[in-house]
Amino acid sequence: MQMQIEDVFMTGATTPAPLRNAAFCSIWSSAQVANLRWLVQTVAIGWLMVTITASDLTVALVQASTTLPAFILSIIADTHSRRSVMIIGLSLIALASVALAGAAAFGFLSPWLIIAGCGFALNDPAWHASVGDIPAAVTLMSTGYTMTRSVGPALGGVILAFLGPLAAFLFSACSNLAPLAAVLRNKWHARPSPLPAERMSTAIRDGIRFTALSSDIRATIMRATLFGLAAIAILALLPLVARDRLADDPIAYGVLFAGFGTGACVAGLNNRLLRQEWLMAIASIACAVCCISLAFTSSVPSATLALAFGGAGWIITWTGVDVWVQLASPRWVVGRTLSIYYAFLSGGMAAGSWIWGNVAQSYSLASSLELAAAALLVVAASGLVLQVHLGAEGDQQGAVFPAPSVALDLKPQSGPIAARTEYSIDESDLDSFFDHMRTRRYALARAGARDWTLQRNLRKPSHWTETFHTPAWMSFRRLHHRLSLSDQDVSQLLAALHLSEKPAETELVIERTTDARRTRSHPVPRVLRP
């Protein structure tokens, strides 16, 4: 059976609507089983670490080990089949779980072996990029995870207390089969592209360029990284809180984790508010309150209530940020922007786990939690500086403009290609002209244009010339394919300012040096018109 994941976007924008798509529903349901197994394994690992090592730093590094693989391995979701990436990622997760179960069975567990085997994260960027056009789908994925958070930790505590770590690892290894089978059973196709696949190096470079030039994505990633750096203290230090400040009992540890998940679940179900920017600041404050409460409480019920606030702040932030990144990313680059976002987020969490573990080990657990709370208050205030202004939804698909016709038989690698467009602009329209050109410049740069310039004719001041370059003919075709409908609107606004009755035409030239050989693959330079 072949299904189109993209069909999910035709079912409506409300949160339950994507579940009407059979492929999405199958994979989403199996993902909840995978989430449950991950939470059971996390509880088992966290508690096992506090029993086999006295190092607070080593315990905190468990969270770093579950996020660092994403920092290293996530930049491939746009350059390969997303389904294939998911299969590889899920297979690696299954192998890691089996290895941990085998090590537990034969008594080979050690702190660093546990850290090394905690996680692989190839699956998430591909899965999110496959369904990222509609906020409802993103929210469903986050909400599904938070729903299992309210059950998984408690289940992990029960398994750990009555059956031991080996049973938890075996449960985790067996549960990995559900999502892998769902992805293997369901097939879907990405929207076809008339252009060949990009090389890995080119795709990474274009993704980084787009992300660097998009102010909204830059601000979102910076805020997410800072939040991850500070808020990871809650999860990284929770095993130490359970051991040193509360009841030294795996079931109590599971209950604490379940409190965190319950708060996240309640917040996730009220998803319509999650993209409000003002709520992101409140979410950081809620996590700060959680840290302060954990630093001073010695009561399991009080700590569980505090963790419910922390879980709500956690899911509000991550669901909102996920939606922000995907709404700000055109489909041609969404996998790469998500991967870069995950990379910085995972790096921030890994660094935060190390920092708060070091502070707890060198000073005290309370000091580490108090400093994390102060950092979260700074993150809450960062929204005043790192503001996000998202445009309207639905401009992510890109416009299918016809490829320019040329008089030469160009090869994909032929180039460099220079594009030159001449305008005649009245002096009274210059302010509007500059505004539109500024918008056009950033749109072209994000799509791959280089060396953009705007020149004014000194003898004919009303004549302006826009130029930009691409390194090869295929690069120019990709740029032409990536421009969105809003970019076309800018072109029409510029055309309206053009004084001449003859429309502004774009001339294309292929650049050559004087010593270039005149062969069929290196033709004589000449002007080409679209």
TrEMBL record:
Residues 519-530 have a biased composition (Basic residues). The chain crosses the membrane at residues 45-73, 85-115, 154-184, 221-239, 251-271, 278-297, 303-325, 337-357, 363-386. Keywords: Cell membrane, Membrane, Transmembrane, Transmembrane helix, Transport. It is found in: Cell membrane. Residues 511-530 are annotated as: Disordered. The keyword Cell inner membrane does not apply. This is Putative MFS family arabinose efflux permease. It is a multi-pass membrane protein. It comes from the Bacteria. GO terms for cellular component: plasma membrane. SUPFAM superfamilies: MFS general substrate transporter. The keyword Nucleus does not apply. InterPro entries: MFS_trans_sf (IPR036259), TM_effector (IPR010290). Gene3D superfamilies: MFS general substrate transporter like domains (1.20.1250.20).
